[in-house]
Design a protein that fits this description.
Two copies of one chain form a homodimer. Chain A has 13 helices and eleven strands. The first copy, chain A, is 44% helix and 14% strand. In chain A, helix 12 links the parallel strand 7 and strand 8. Chain A starts with a helix and ends in a 12-residue tail after the last strand. Chain A is an alpha/beta fold. At the A-B interface, helix 4, helix 5, strand 2 and helix 12 of A face helix 4, helix 5, strand 2 and helix 12 of B. Chain A binds a DNA duplex (16 and 16 nucleotides) through helix 2 and helix 4.
Chain lengths: 343, 343
DNA sequence: CTGTTAGCGCCTTCAA
DNA sequence: TTGAAGGCGCTAACAG
């Protein structure tokens, strides 16, 4: 493991010259010095010591990505484009699952995160993970670069990227009513998180506006897992009057819904249409493939990365918060179809 | 952002005393000194500088996990238990997707990986990613702590964790023949990677031993994606004689297989049984849920972590390679059933 | 164009 | 029990 000093010695120059040549692409120096250093470094497989460089430059070239569980399907779909966007800018990503950091509550979680070797942090579904807005603001004031994905914190120095959930639901409702559906059930989020709440509220508002039936018995809250989507749908199908379509607030619940329909011998989409929201990657390959709203992960992620890097690059100085809203798109697949001629 | 020096000043002691108190849990010193330092550090929200500490200790408390794409379903399922095992030992994980590191070939990939702030590396499916065994050995000799997951490198200082693939296929064949199947097709890995090859070879060997029909027209290679599993199955179903069961070398191909059957109006499992291998997390929730072989990710991952940390802790000294073989288990679900009474 | 010098923040002997 | 001093490897300001 060679250091800059070893290379300098072998090349017969000082270590600062080596450093300069190795870092500043366009520094002026005699070609033979430059070339000699470069060659010797390459021949000896010189690798700069990350810690030393970071210590000196006071940066890590790393952005943290915090989610409750980075291996859940939604988070994984965000990881992909974030990773790419960061790599393009020569940054690394550090994935952090909140659930691994014990149960010390939000302050404890943030304290641990701040101890990590990162220059900035992207938080996924922050209203879920860190509902305490004041705590976030406190850290932001204390110099933490922060961008929240799928959750907006007004005021303060926290950037955000959010999805236009209302637009998404509108697209889905248009699609379903366009197919001829009038009896629409909904599986809302039991935790009432910001984005999911908007989805549910928009659904209700549209039903009202379009004079379609609003029935509480067609709303079965879940926490957005396959298992709960399954159980909720079982309950729903037990009602005396069945809807012709079910919209789940996320894709996982929709998968559970499809499985429950199958177990109840209700065919999808012939007898009931099922729709999801998010378009996680398996949605296109499920059986039947799922009609859903694409959350446009790559744009969400790219925006968050742009935000956080803008903040990081404005080193030391004040950083202005930036807020981006992404429009989702409809993906029509096999799980929805026109309802049968009613009895 | 306070340093150890600020704390020392506030406490009226030297920075070395602060360092000692903060690090060595059981160092002897006057209780009042100790307590004062601890309090001041806590009150001022002191956080040690990672770079400085790493530079001094020559370690990162971080293990890298290298996969072609860490967001593919198989890799994600490994991440979960690896993360947990590392967290238990106060280590962090750094996830690295090889595909982001350009197309410089294996030497280039390894060079980049060695530049990362990690103490050791776990490589997933190394025979896929870095087939060049000598290159791996070279780096291992050069001090790189390395554990390969799902691939064994004999000799050298590279630890490995592998799966008993032959055992897995045996379990699956027993299951299917037990149900009464005699006409078994197989979707092998077109890339002929080590583990997948064993699966295919074992399948053929067992057919022979049990005097069941071996028909090349029932073997359709894929690279293990849903799309290819779909296409391969379409071809398979076009043959004049259809098998009663299809075993895919991995779960994704099996999903594609199921979808193809549906499109051809062949019901699963009533007309054809479909089986996978790996038991990725969606397998239990697919429609129909998939009969498959559980690769026991948590044990695989935990073993790899144990190996790598053992090597890391044997700092500087020689490290002996360790080899672990994990037994997979059968998971019977909806996608397999007894064949219909033959025509 | 190149070398000298001075830290970045921390840990760890060695003396006192 | 505590403090002084040195150095981990690197970058960058400042001379020359």
């Amino acid at each position: 493991m060679y250091t800059i000093l070893d290379i300098a010695q072998k090349a017969g120059v000082s270590h600062s010259t080596v450093s300069r040549v190795l870092n500043n692409k366009f520094i002026r120096c005699t070609p033979q010095t430059r070339e000699k250093i470069l060659r010797i470094a390459a021949d000896n497989d010189y690798r700069p010591n990350t810690s030393a460089r970071n210590l000196k430059t006071q940066s890590y070239q790393t952005i943290g990505f915090l989610a409750y569980d980075i291996t859940d399907m939604f988070a994984v779909d965000c990881i992909r484009p974030i990773e790419e966007a960061l790599a393009r800018r020569d940054f690394q990503a550090l994935w952090v699952s909140a659930k691994l950091h014990g149960s010390g509550g939000q302050p404890d979680l943030l304290r641990k995160v701040r101890g990590l070797p990162i220059d900035g942090l992207i938080v996924l579904e922050a209203d879920n993970l860190i509902p305490d807005v004041e705590l976030l603001k406190l850290h932001a004031r204390d110099g933490m670069r922060l961008s929240t994905l799928i959750r907006m914190v007004p005021g303060g120095h926290i950037s955000s990227v959010t999805l236009d959930n209302a637009h998404g639901i509108r697209l889905m409702m248009d699609h379903l009513t366009g197919l001829g559906h009038r009896e629409l059930a909904f599986l809302p989020d039991a935790r009432r998180h910001q984005g999911a709440k908007v989805r549910f509220d928009t659904y209700k508002a549209l039903l009202r506006r379009r004079k379609l039936p609003l029935r509480e018995e067609w709303w079965e809250p879940t926490e957005g897992t396959i298992e709960e989507g399954y159980a909720a749908t079982k309950r729903l199908l037990g009602r005396k009057h069945r809807p012709t379509a079910i919209i789940a607030f996320n894709d996982l619940a929709a998968f559970g819904c499809i499985r429950a329909c199958k177990d109840e011998n209700v065919s999808v989409p012939e007898e009931i249409s099922v729709a999801g929201f998010d378009d996680i990657s398996i949605a296109a390959h499920y059986n039947p493939s799922l009609t859903t709203i694409s959350s446009n992960y790559s744009l969400l992620a790219k925006s968050a990365v742009d935000q956080i890097l803008a903040m990081v690059e404005r080193r030391g100085g004040l950083f202005e918060a930036d807020h981006v809203v992404v429009k989702p798109e409809l993906r029509v697949r096999e799980s929805t179809a026109s309802p049968r001629r009613s009895t």
